[in-house]
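hey can u check if this looks right to u? its 83 residues, i copy pasted from the old doc so theres a chance i mangled smth
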Amino acid sequence: SDDGNWVSFLIRYDESPDTLFVKQVYDRKTIRILNAVDGKFWDKDKYVYLDRNKTLHIVDLDKDMIKTITNVSSFSISGNDKK
């Protein structure tokens, strides 16, 4: 993440769905995500990922809230200089 408090990594399996992990560096909080295609950190407290069903998930890492948007084929995160 932008502030270095979160990391993400993907584990690929031969016979099971691939699993994307988003883990808090200094705590024990871990989010496991099955069938993720792409994922990126957004700012210091958000993680955005696309799954195989073309659903975009926006995860608020601090508040444990997820918003979803269906029928998404790709995404990108642009920089924003507003503070």
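DSSP finds no helices and seven strands in the chain.
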